Amino acid sequence: MLKLWKCVLALSVSAMLLSPALAEDAKPKKPKVGAAKKEQPAVQLPKEIELTDEQKPKIAELEKEFAPKMKELREKLDKVLTEEQKKARAEVTKEARTSGKKGKELQQAIKDATKASDEQQKQIDEVEKQIVALRQKIREKVEPILTDDQKAKLPPKPGEKKKKGKDKKSA
Known about the structure:
Elements: H1 2-25, H2 55-80, H3 83-99, H4 103-114, H5 118-142, H6 148-152, H7 160-170
Helix pairs in contact: 2-5, 3-4
């Protein structure tokens, strides 16, 4: 009888010691990069712009209106590239953002990394034009909702900087 109790005691002690190790293995694994990534909102405002309680539902309504269209365009863009190209694009985008590349410099780095064929590049350019046009339309709907102070915090419209530069040259 004493042997039985010693055996039960030894098993229970070993079970207590192993349970934390087994529980650690049961923790959910982190999802792979790119798997089920969070969808970007269609209406993107700088962090400096704080919306009032009156503005929030109006912006949410615009998000509902434009999110499906933006998602469709992003999916179209995603279908153009192979998995290797997508992986290269993601790595270059991450590196470029941390190094501070923006605009055309960022686009060129992505273009160089993906090594898209002429046909792929043609499709990418077409979809990107559609995305830019949709963003313009979104901005036109957002601006009337914002105050003058909030509008001042918006990034310049594409082409605005160029216009200012041309004015200086002609002067």
